[in-house]
Amino acid sequence: MSTTTERITSTDALTFAEALVRFAHVIDHLYVDASRAQGLTPQQANLLCLLIDEPVGMTDISELLHLGRSSLTGLVDRVERRGLVERIPDDRDGRACRIALTGDGLQRALASHANVAQRVEAMVDGMAETDREQVASAITQLLIRHRPAARSNGNRSADQR
Amino acid sequence: MSTTTERITSTDALTFAEALVRFAHVIDHLYVDASRAQGLTPQQANLLCLLIDEPVGMTDISELLHLGRSSLTGLVDRVERRGLVERIPDDRDGRACRIALTGDGLQRALASHANVAQRVEAMVDGMAETDREQVASAITQLLIRHRPAARSNGNRSADQR
DNA sequence: TATTGTTATACTCTATAACTATA
DNA sequence: TATAGTTATAGAGTATAACAATA
């Protein structure tokens, strides 16, 4: 038997769970590499990608990213210092602010997104179209079942991760 | 369209690559939670699980974990300080040492492994047996193709991360 | 009083470069 | 000289608790 995440002592039998975990690690690694290629840490890339559609408030981001608010403050500080995002005061709530991408930030976010996609595609390259579809549908269903926490709140999008 | 990793603005169409990346993030999150349940960081859990079968040398570990040797030194220091592993001098090479689990460490590694497996199983619970098998086989093949770097070296196992 | 976001503090993790002690 | 591992240093990420300003 092999360990949870690190070994493939040949092609010995893997639990379904083990296979999934390893697979996730591989994807994760691609994600880290793709982020670095853009001069970003994976967390920074994550944050930027989250902001592509529209500015988002700190509390919302911290929930989407499963991060404490204070941890997020630091993360935002660092990308703001690099000119990738801006803190925009909220008109309707003096306490709040929303984080918005700068032009540079948007560019970086899109490039990062594209880079990951490209790497994943490369990995999945030889995969049969049938397999691809089946895996996609199975995974999508899992994702849907695992994102039950859709916001009922007006103009906010549902969450993830 | 949604961002690389964070949003599902309903059930809008996801690229195959996007679905995979999100899925990986979800698994990853389970892994982090499972590790924490054992009082470990995910990196520490990773390390301990790597050592379940047998002690491993620093350089080998650093390759398996895709970590710089100096980063590993710190990681090992911290788990050693907690009594979970020991540095065992290598008889055949005065410079080298191998990292071995203590009883406590083994226990923790196994518990961690089991905990992750259980959480993943729970997530995959409702999945049809057919889907499960197909996904498993597709993923396994990807993993095999993506671990070409099998050690030709005698009694060492191939890597992963 | 509750919420939004920040500060203060303390660890863990990571990388780079320089160093030691063997080989 | 090359390799195994460590030390020094610096920055990034995270968590907890205490705090400010606004609601």
Give a description of the structure.
The first copy, chain A, is mainly alpha-helical and 161 residues long. The first copy, chain A, contains 6 helices and 3 strands, in the order ααβααββαα. In chain A, strands 1-3-2 form a 3-stranded antiparallel beta sheet. In chain A, helix 1 packs across helix 5, helix 2 packs across helix 5 and helix 3 crosses helix 4. The first copy, chain A, is elongated and about 55 Å long. The two termini of chain A are 30 Å apart. The interface between A and B is large, with 67 and 68 residues. The first copy, chain A, binds a DNA duplex (23 and 23 nucleotides) through helix 4.
SSE blueprint and pairings:
The structure is a homodimer of 161-residue chains.
Chain A: H1 16-37, H2 42-50, E1 56-57, H3 58-64, H4 69-81, E2 85-89, E3 97-101, H5 103-123, H6 129-145
Antiparallel strand pairs in A: 1-3, 2-3
Chain A binds a DNA duplex (23 and 23 nucleotides) through helix 4.
